[in-house]
Structures are given as C-alpha cells and as structure tokens.
Amino acid sequence: MTGHVTAGVARTVLLAGAAALLLCGCQTMQNLAQQQDAYNRQRCQEFGLAPGTGPYIQCVSQGANAYAAAVGSNPAPPPDVVPVVPLWPVQPQNNSCSAPASTPKGGCQGCSVSCGAQQASCTPGQEWLGGSETCMSPAVCACR
C-alpha cells in the first residue's frame, strides 16, 4: 500500500509541478506580448504616426517591423488634400489706380479710378517736348 501512496503523492507532485510550469510559461508569454506591444507602440510613434489614427492602429496590430517593410515597398497613398499650384504666377488684382499731373509744368491734369472687380489702368498725361501749358496727350484712367 505504501507503493500506491507514494505513487499517488508522486503523481500529485508531478501534476502540481507541471501546472506551475504551465502557469510560468503563460506568464512569460504574457510578458513577452506586453513587451512586444510596448515596442510596437513606441516604434509606430517614432514613424510619426499619431495614436488613434488608422495608420497607427495598423502599425501596432501588424507589428512595427512588418509595417515599416510594407510601407517601404509600397508608395505612399495620395494625401487627402492635394495642394493647388498655379502654372503661372498669380498677379495681384489691380482694381484702382491714379495718374499724377504731368511734369514739369502740370499742363495735363491727373486722374484716378476705382473699378471694383475689374482691373484698373492709368496712364499719365504728356506735355509737349520741353514742357507746355497744353497737353500732347491727356491722362487716361479706365476700367477693363
């Protein structure tokens, strides 16, 4: 009978030891998973991904190294907002102007115009060569 008791005790001790090893193994696996998750979160933030965004969640769930490899082999998707770049320089809207009186004698009066949404054009008047009280061509201010 002592052989049966000893075998029973040995079996109980053996089962308890196996259960303890299994629990330790599970704890070790859980620790490894937590460490891997922390690593993925840190690396994904280092990639410039903001927590809570779609790419960040994909990075953490896929694994930082796998995400980096996948992104490196695929071109970046187009941005949500495409910047508009003009093909030629945009000229400032010129909707008002003025032309001064002519020089040196002031024979031609000046003018000014404000055109709202239209473009303004002003050309100063010209005196006769050497200066004169009369205009060769008067000042012109107009909207186009």
Strand and helix map with partners:
Elements: H1 2-46, H2 54-62, H3 64-73, E1 96-99, E2 111-114, E3 120-123, E4 126-127, E5 135-137, E6 140-143
Antiparallel strand pairs: 1-2, 3-6, 4-5
Descriptive report:
The structure is a single chain. The chain has three helices and six strands, in the order αααββββββ. The strands form three sheets. Strands 1-2 form a two-stranded antiparallel ribbon. The chain has a two-stranded antiparallel sheet with strand order 3-6. Strands 4-5 form a two-stranded antiparallel sheet. Helix 1 packs antiparallel against helix 2 and helix 2 crosses helix 3. The termini are far apart. 9% of the residues are buried. The mean pLDDT is 77.
Keywords, separated by commas or semicolons:
144 residues; alpha+beta; 2 domains; two-stranded antiparallel sheet; two-stranded antiparallel ribbon; 44% helix; rod-shaped
Describe the structure concisely.
The chain has 144 residues and is of the alpha+beta class. It contains 3 helices and 6 strands. α1 (2-46) packs antiparallel against α2 and α2 (54-62) crosses α3 (64-73).
Helix content: 40-55%
Q: What oligomeric state do the depicted chains represent?
A: single chain
* Total helical elements: 3
What distance lies between the first and last C-alpha atoms, to the nearest angstrom? 119 Å
Taking the sheet with the most strands, its summary is: 2 strands, antiparallel
Q: What's the structural domain tally? A: 2
| Strand-residue proportion | 5-15%
Sequence of strands across the biggest β-sheet: 1-2
Along the chain, the helix and strand elements come as HHHEEEEEE
Total beta strands: 6
Radius of gyration over C-alpha positions, nearest whole angstrom: 43 Å
- The 3D shape can be described as rod-shaped
